[in-house]
Structures are given as structure tokens and as C-alpha cells.
């Protein structure tokens, strides 16, 4: 089966994205569920010094960002990690695993957002529907996103700008309330300098676990490489914009982390499923933000879920079109031209994640799903850093960004270290392993069905 389109017959994408829009895209993609949902969990690992874990996660993300910058300006195409892996190693199974890991991280991220959104709906509307209500609302939200996806809804930069402003507003409320509480003498800044770990962990291991969890808050910058073909002068713009976006979000996250533990004792913060709402309640008990804030949180994480589910369904569709997954998953809805089979498949997988992880992890579901997202992407980033090292031996005839020589080595080692069992919980390996196993089974069934000598994956087409 030949590919349906060719780079020779399709027009180039319009280069309409300048530095400001790219910066908003990157900041909006990084901001979201991680800081809203996991601030308390990070504090629970290391006490008031959660900001230290955020800074370490920022450092790891930034080192890896340098590798992405070198690769995206060297190969300015939309397929991202799959393209870099394929060019560096040429091993189709490895390319498939990287692609499916990226896809799976989208599903776990969307599941995290759905659970957190459901908890804010319960609080915002003052509902008391029993312990299963959060799961039911989360599944209903995922169904709504699937219906939107089926209509062929696509991400627009204008929509991204609006939701980025909503996300920033929610975080700025926390910071401003913290400053106001400080002016009233109602905070304890000393808590932000205290390391507190569980009895079975050293400070090093606790900080390692907290950094791996905080890494979920820093991911999103890697999605911007898919905008390379639509960015004006990407060689010049991408490096400064991506690094500026990472720096801005890290600065905001550190302020939020310090404010949170200064206003709310660590024990209460780590036990709450809506930690930033606790900060708002305690810091400004007389203001009506306690009613409004849950709805800000809902809008802040809704776009995260929608974008991730759209990305996952398009990846499934692309792999089915190229005979990497069963062709049934490449079916398109007449009229709307949306990939209905891929949307149904990813929706069912997300249902399974939300319901299944809830049965196993209970109140720790959000942490388990967020940690799995970080685990999958850390594994992908390890491969991307190694790919950057390998591809340095293959120069290209175009100007591109050059990362400092040692950084991809540091990125590969640090990301691989954070994938280890000292940084991750067993349940995160189980979730990630289950998702990858599903992908491998589908891939093997497809390979057995076709049995063709043609390379089974052309990653350049995944961005179509």
C-alpha cells in the first residue's frame, strides 16, 4: 500500500508563526495540570522545599531542550521525536516504541487532567455524589472531548492564547494572595526552607522522586517542534523563544511553590487533591475567589486534555495509514473527515486508564497518572538526547543551532537516571508497561497480517 500523499505534491505549510505566538504556544503548553494538581504531592516528598525539585526538573528539561533545538533546526519537520529516532538509528521497532510512548504520554496526561477537572467540578458546584462521582464526571468529560474531536475540532492559536491567559490568571491569583497574606503576617516563609522526607527515604532519594514528579509540570516544550514548518525563521527564533518559555514557567512555578507552603502547612497541602484551592481558601478567606477558583482550574486543564487526545488520535491514525497498526484504526468519518476509529480507540484507552488506575491507586490516581506521563517522556527524552549525539556525525547542508557539546550527554544521563526505580513508583511502570504492551501487540498483529518487506514506519508522515 503506497502512501497517499507526497511531499512533492503537497504545498508547503504557511510560515505564519512569529516569536510572540510561538512563546504563547510554548508557555500555554507547559502550564496546566502539573502545577495545579501536583504541587501538594511534590511538597509531600520533600516538604517545603518543593521549589528545589521544580528547579531541578527545569534544569533537566532545559538540557534536553537544547538537544531538541539542535534537532528541530537541523531537521525542521513536524514529526518530532519519531523523526529524530528514525534518522539516528533506523530501527523501525525503536521508532515505533518512541512514537507510541509519546502517544501514551498524551493519554496519561489527558487522564490526569480529566480526574483533576472532575474533582474541581465536585468542589465548584458543591456536589456530594459519593466516592464514584469523580470517576463518572471524568469519564463524561472524556466522552465530551471525543465528541468535539469527532466534529473535527482543531487547535487554533487564538484559542490557545485565551486558555493560556486563563491558566496564568489562576496561578497569578495564588501568587498575589500569597503576597497579600505575607503583608498581613499570616504566612510562615521559613517552611519553604525545610526539607522533610518520609522515614524510608534519604534526602537525595526524596529529591530524586520529587524531581521526577515535578518534571510533569515542565513537559510541553517538546510539542513546539511540531510547529517548525509553520514558524518564520525557526533557526533564529526557536532557541531564544523555547528557552524564554521554559524560564518564564519555571519562575512562575517556583513562586507558586514557595507561596503554597508559606500559606498552607505541608501536611494539609500534600493531603489535598486541589492544593492551590487550599492556598486560596487559607490566604484570602473573606474573598469570593474560593467559589471562582475551581472553575478557573477547570478551564486551565481542559485544553491540556483536548490537545493531548487530539494528538494521540492523529498519531494512531497516521500509524494505521502507514500499516504500522491495524488498518481499521485509519478509518475516517465521512463528511467531517475526522479519524473516528482512532478517536474511539484512544477514548476507550483513556476510559480504561481513568477507571483502572482509580481502582488500584484510589486517591493517588492523579499522582500515578502524572508520574506515568513524566516516566514515558523521560524515556523518550533519553532517546532524543542520544539521537542528538549520533546525528552530530551526520552534518547537513543548512544553518542550524548547535547545542554546547556536553549537554546532550548530560541530558541522556539525567533523563535515564530519572527513569530508574529509585525515582518512580511501581504503579507508574505498570501503567506505562501496559500501554506499550498494547501497542506492541497491535504492531505484531499488523506485521503478521501484512508480512511485507517495506519499512513499516515513515515518521515524516506522522506530522501530516
Automatic annotation (TrEMBL):
Keywords per UniProt: Cell membrane, Membrane, Transmembrane, Transmembrane helix
InterPro entries cross-referenced by the UniProt entry: AA/rel_permease1, APC_superfamily
Pfam families: AA_permease_2
Source superkingdom: Bacteria
Bilayer topology term: Multi-pass membrane protein
Transmembrane segments: 21-39, 51-69, 89-109, 129-150, 157-182, 202-221, 241-266, 292-317, 338-357, 369-391, 403-423, 429-450
Cellular localization per UniProt: Cell membrane
Coiled-coil regions listed: none
Name assigned to this protein: APC family permease
Organism: Oceanitalea stevensii
Record lineage: Bacteria, Bacillati, Actinomycetota, Actinomycetes, Micrococcales
Amino acid at each position: 500500500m503506497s502512501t497517499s500523499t507526497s511531499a512533492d505534491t503537497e504545498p508547503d505549510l504557511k510560515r505564519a508563526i512569529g516569536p510572540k505566538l510561538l512563546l504563547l504556544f510554548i508557555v500555554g503548553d507547559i502550564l496546566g495540570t502539573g502545577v495545579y494538581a501536583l504541587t501538594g504531592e511534590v511538597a509531600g516528598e520533600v516538604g517545603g522545599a518543593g521549589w528545589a525539585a521544580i528547579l531541578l526538573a527545569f534544569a533537566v528539561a532545559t538540557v534536553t531542550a537544547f538537544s531538541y533545538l539542535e534537532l528541530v533546526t537541523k531537521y525542521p519537520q513536524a514529526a518530532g521525536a519519531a523523526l529524530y529516532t528514525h534518522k539516528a538509528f533506523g530501527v523501525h521497532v525503536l521508532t515505533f516504541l518512541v512514537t507510541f510512548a509519546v502517544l501514551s504520554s498524551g493519554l496519561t496526561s489527558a487522564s490526569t487532567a480529566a480526574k483533576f477537572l472532575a474533582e474541581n467540578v465536585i468542589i465548584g458546584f458543591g456536589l456530594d455524589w459519593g466516592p464514584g462521582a469523580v470517576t463518572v464526571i471524568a469519564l463524561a468529560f472524556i466522552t465530551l472531548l471525543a465528541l468535539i474531536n469527532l466534529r473535527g475540532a482543531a487547535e487554533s492559536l487564538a484559542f490557545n492564547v485565551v486558555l493560556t491567559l486563563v491558566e496564568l490568571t489562576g496561578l497569578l491569583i495564588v501568587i498575589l494572595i500569597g503576597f497579600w497574606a505575607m503583608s498581613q503576617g499570616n504566612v510562615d516563609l521559613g517552611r519553604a526552607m525545610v526539607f522533610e522526607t518520609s522515614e524510608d527515604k534519604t534526602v537525595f532519594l526524596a529529591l530524586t522522586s520529587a524531581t521526577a514528579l515535578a518534571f510533569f509540570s515542565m513537559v510541553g516544550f517538546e510539542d513546539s517542534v511540531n510547529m517548525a514548518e509553520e514558524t518564520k525563521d525557526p533557526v533564529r527564533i526557536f532557541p531564544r523563544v523555547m528557552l524564554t518559555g521554559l524560564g518564564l514557567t519555571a519562575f512562575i512555578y517556583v513562586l507558586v511553590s514557595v507561596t503554597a507552603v508559606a500559606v498552607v502547612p505541608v501536611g494539609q497541602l500534600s493531603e489535598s487533591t486541589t492544593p492551590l484551592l487550599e492556598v486560596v481558601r487559607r490566604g484570602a478567606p473573606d474573598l469570593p475567589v474560593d467559589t471562582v477558583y475551581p472553575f478557573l482550574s477547570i478551564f486551565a486543564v481542559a485544553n491540556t486534555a483536548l490537545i493531548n487526545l487530539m494528538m494521540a488520535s492523529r498519531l494512531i491514525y497516521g500509524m494505521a495509514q502507514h500499516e504500522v497498526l491495524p488498518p481499521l484504526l485509519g478509518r475516517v468519518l465521512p463528511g467531517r473527515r475526522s479519524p473516528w476509529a482512532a478517536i474511539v480507540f484512544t477514548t476507550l484507552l483513556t476510559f480504561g486508564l481513568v477507571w483502572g488506575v482509580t481502582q488500584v491507586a484510589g486517591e493517588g490516581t492523579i499522582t500515578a497518572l502524572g508520574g506515568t506521563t513524566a516516566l514515558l517522556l523521560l524515556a523518550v527524552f533519553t532517546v532524543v538526547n542520544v539521537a542528538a549525539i549520533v546525528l552530530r556525525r551526520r552534518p547537513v547542508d543548512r544553518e542550524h543551532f548547535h547545542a554546547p557539546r556536553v549537554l546532550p550527554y548530560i541530558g541522556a544521563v539525567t533523563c535515564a537516571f530519572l527513569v530508574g526505580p529509585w525515582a518512580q513508583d511501581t504503579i507508574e511502570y505498570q501503567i506505562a508497561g501496559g500501554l506499550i504492551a498494547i501497542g506492541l501487540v497491535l504492531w505484531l498483529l499488523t506485521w503478521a497480517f501484512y508480512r511485507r518487506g517495506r519499512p513499516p514506519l515513515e515518521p515524516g508522515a506522522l506530522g501530516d
